[in-house]
Amino acid sequence: MNQPLRAVLGEDQPIVREGIAAVLGRAGIDVVEAVDNAVDLVRAAGEHRPDVVITDIRMPPAHEADGLRAVQRIRAARPETAVIVFSQFLDASYALDLVGDDPSGVGYLLKEKVASPQVLIDAVERVVARDSALDPDVISALLGRRRPEDPLAALTPKERQVLALMAEGNSNTGISEKLFVSVAAVERHVTGIFMKLGLGQTASRHHRRVLAVLRYLGQ
Fold first, then answer.
1. Residue 39 phi/psi, 5° resolution?
2. How many CB atoms lie within 10 A of CB 67?
3. Is residue 203 within 8 Å of residue 194, measured between CB atoms?
4. 51: three-class secondary structure by DSSP
5. Taking a C-beta distance cutoff of 8 angstroms, is the pair 68, 42 a contact?
6. Other residues' Cβ atoms within 10 Å of the Cβ of residue 24
7. How does pLDDT run across 168-179, given as a tens digit for each residue?
8. 82: phi > 0 → left, psi -120 to 50 → alpha, else beta; which?
9. Could you read off the pLDDT of 144-176 as tens digits, one per residue?
10. What is the C-alpha to C-alpha distance for residues 84 and 82, in angstroms, rounded to an integer?
């Protein structure tokens, strides 16, 4: 029998913290500790070694980007830990700091866009599976900071659509449902993307997927 996913939660507003914990609990995710500041977030992640850390960006003690800095420390110490950050506003520099040079296992969600509990649960499942869960507005902001040389110039419009959905963390099946095409068609587009970006067969398909997303985000 599979063990439930284990999460550490960081949120300084008690009502919001309890609400998120309840949503996760109903989905069978074990919130092993919920804290209200970034110092305790780092401590709890080190003690419990959870599958995922979920946190607000702005937290005590400084009420600035303490939550973001905390998950950066957590990822540096234990890269296999998936992380999701919530933000009330979009800041491309925060997103770039979070993604770093590897978007796998990373989520960045805008609070106002989380319209239902399932959005959060889907994001948790994606990042734990080492995909990304980036809000489309976050992706757009990252694209705006891309270098003038566009490595994606050779891609067709449909391939760009597929790559954008890959960057959001969608599987091939999820992409096929959003674009109303077959999974086989999506797989052909993904193969074309790999070829045009020079991502040959030397790496695994999952690793090439991560590399393609990095190219897309301009890293």
1. -60, -45
2. 27
3. no
4. coil
5. no
6. 23
7. 888 899 999 999
8. beta
9. 555 445 667 778 888 888 998 988 888 899 999
10. 7
Structural domains present in the chain? 6-142 (3.40.50.2300), 147-217 (1.10.10.10)
Q: Which two tokens stand for residue 152?
A: 């994606």
Q: How far apart are CA 106 and CA 85, in angstroms?
A: 8
31 SS3 class: strand
Contact status, residue 199 vs residue 208, Cβ threshold 8 Å: yes
Residue with the two structure tokens 């963390």: 169
- Give the mean pLDDT of 20-45: 96
Compute CA distances 210 → 105, 106, 141, whole Å.
10, 11, 19
* CB 86 within 8 Å of CB 111: yes
Which amino acid, one-letter code, is at 111? Answer: K
Cα separation, 159 vs 164, in Å, equals 9
Token pair of 75, please? 């990822």
Assigned token pair, 171: 């599987």
Instruction: Answer yes or no: pTM beyond 0.85.
Output: no
Measure the CA–CA gap between 65 and 76, rounded to whole angstroms: 17
